[in-house]
Amino acid sequence: MPSRIFSKTPESVIINYAYFVRNYCVYNYFRINLICTSLYEIVVMKNIYLKILDEIGSNPFLALATITETSGSTPGKPGSSALFSKSGLIAGTIGGGVVEGRVKVFAQEAIPLKQSGYPDFNIGYDIAKKDEAICGGEVSVLVDANLSNSIGEFESMRLSLEEHIPGVMVTMVTNHTGKSVLINRYWITGKTEQVLPVEFHSQIKPVVDSMIRKSDPYDYRAMELSLSGQEPSSTFFLEPVFPSKKLIIAGAGHIGKALSHLGSMLGFEVTVVDDRPEYANESNLPEADHVVVGNIGDVLSKMEMDNNTFVVIVTHGHKDDASALKPCVGADLAYLGMIGSRGKVGKMRTDFLANGWATNEQWSKIYAPVGLEIKSQTVEEIAISIAAQLILVRNNK
Q1: What is the pTM of this model?
Q2: 149 — phi, psi (to 5°)?
């Protein structure tokens, strides 16, 4: 195991993580599997509700497990979700290890009965049991074995995200006697009219609006509400869902390809642009959401970019880097980075300032040379250093 210790500052966490990957995982980086992080969420999974839509048509026997509450030390945090079939885990994670194993068993028993449940799991301290976790906490897990009841809300969410509209998935859980619970879901955006039960709408909608404005994807909340004099109460779990940040990679060579893989794994909507069709194609870039073939500068000048757009320039030549950089300088981007030695970057800076293509202030916002300093040598290491920097910038926004 690595000797470096995670400190509590965000940048140190990212740098230490990057060193860990560089020194121990880089030659197997396509199979990196992060089990849990106690300080910061490093990897953002693709939206699991969209995965349900992908799967349920061919496999209606599914269950979604979501951690709703924790106490003590636990590998998964509230909002962590995993999708199970009768055969086992399909997507996501609730922390791995013994808890995920127990939840899998619970889900597999619930699926054929279509009986949703809300079990608690204790994570013991017994280090003598090699198959047991030693976190020493407790988790509450909501297991929804009737996902077909929520398909309409998942579809509404998908349409909103395609239009880059954020929202909150509200899950209403009504407790019943025995082991089962009743689950209803409501997708709410800033433009949504009343969809919640009228008696709860006035209490929940202001919270939803506040969460959307806050723009924190980890702001998972719970509210317990009940009608005056009536039981049982209902618990509402509120999960903010935001459109994926856009990652535009200028250059489909070795680094662009590796970064495309990592960007997809990190939850970005990935677009790769290159003028070489032998590189810019779906076979070479299977995990890119969009692949565009054409003059890089011309393509970038016509693309829609905003403060949720990250641009990384890793083309195959100095001239192409300059062409890609010109339409991006001065744009209101979340991130703009360019690969190159310090000598090359210095020369380009001089040229851009001399020709009026950039001001000193505009150039100061460019991450060049791109990536965190982890003494990268190989293609994979360089891609990881860039990905780590993207995480740092995204999580600091």
Answers
A1: 0.75
A2: -70, -20
